[in-house]
Amino acid sequence: MNNTVNKNVVLLVTTLSSFLAPFMGSSVFIGLPSIEKEFSMDVVMLSWVSTAYLLDAAMFLVPFGKIADIYGRKKIFKYGIMIDIIASLLIVFSSGEMELIVLRVVQGIGAAMIFGTGIAILTSVYPPGERGKALGINIGGVYLGLSLGPVIGGFLTQNFGWRSIFISYVPLELIIIVLISLKVNGEWADAKGEKLDYIGSAFYGCSLAAIMYGFSLLPGITGAELILASIICLAVFVYWEMKAKAPVLDMNLFRKNPVFTLSILAALINYSATFAVSFFLSLYLQNIKGFDPQYSGLILVAQPVVMAFFSPFAGRLSDKIEPRIVASAGMAFTTIGLILLSFLNDSTAVEYIIASLIILGFGFALFSSPNTNAVMSSVEKKFYGVASATLGTMRLTGQMLSMGIATLIVAVYLGNVQITPEYFPLFLKSVNAAFMVFAAFCFIGIFASFARGKIR
Question: Which residues have a Cβ under 8 Å from the Cβ of 172 and sit 6 or more positions away?
Answer without folding.
Answer: 16, 19, 20
